[in-house]
């Protein structure tokens, strides 16, 4: 199973500002010495030595994660602004079919769909899965023409199919078996566990982890335990999580404890806070890795979900 991150930011698209770009360039220029630019190899070595937050960016598009299964089925988790980039850059699927699985229908998870080029291609088929039976109406409202969007949902491919999924009832897409679970979030959010060739991947964004997620019930065990990789909401620091109780997001250390509890292989912190710049997000990752290694002493490998990164499990 191949996982690619197209959008990792929570709540609202967060492009780098002109000031942030200038600060990055200033900080790089300050670090350069004459020998860093003496030759091509020196330049490469210098660029590789820069901190990650300086030579790159975590990404500002809202949630969109693509999963390619063993039989090359193309699954897309959420249709945040990252799905626009997917539509421009991803190689087209051989069978001309996309499966979009919605965690829930908050703006930051649906706003990219009207900009997804493949949705308008009549030779493509789009399956949209949501636990909300009103999903089609909500997407139609988002594209109310001409006041909210210039073209209506009817401009999409005629091969557009909506499927209502029910928590706890598995379904299959190609070679993968998928199950959903209702999680705590305003209006509810649904996590997806995708199992393909005996490897399990869990996508659980817009999730406020609670006691019940740490209960070893049969349902929780079947859903969470032994996943090879977990993408989970880690928008907050602990203080924020206390201040913003019931806002529907989790602090990164809960995510680590949770991954440790359920024997997850790799953890990807996700739905990054729009207020945090690249330097802050890298500091959070460092703190998370320290917490994981030193405090929880877990074997969970902790990463930060970053745009344009592909992971193979
Ligand atoms: Zn969100
Ligand atoms: Zn939400």
Question: What do you see in this structure?
Answer:
This protein has two domains: 2-15 and 57-312, Ribonuclease Z/Hydroxyacylglutathione hydrolase-like (Metallo-beta-lactamase, Chain A), CATH 3.60.15; 18-49, no CATH class. Helix content is 27%, strand content 23%. It has helices at residues 18-31, 40-49, 82-89, 107-110, 135-142, 218-224, 238-243, 252-261, 278-296, and strands spanning 2-7, 64-68, 74-77, 97-101, 125-130, 160-164, 171-173, 176-183, 189-196, 199-204, 229-233, 266-270, 301-304, 310-312. Helix 6 links the parallel strand 10 (199-204) and strand 11 (229-233). The protein is globular and about 60 Å long. The mean pLDDT is 97. One zinc ion is lined by residues 10-11, 106, 108-109, 206, 271.
What's the gist of this structure?
With 313 residues, the chain is α/β, with parallel strands linked by helices.
Number of helices: 9
CATH superfamily of the largest domain: Ribonuclease Z/Hydroxyacylglutathione hydrolase-like
CATH architecture of the largest domain: 4-Layer Sandwich
Number of strands: 14
The span between the termini is 6 Å
Cα-atom radius of gyration: 20 Å
Output the helix-strand order: EHHEEHEHEHEEEEEHEHHEHEE
The main sheet comes to: 7 strands, mixed
> How many domains comprise the coordinates?
2
Structural class: alpha/beta
Here the CATH topology of the largest domain equals Metallo-beta-lactamase, Chain A
What is the 3D shape?
Answer: globular
Low-confidence stretches: none
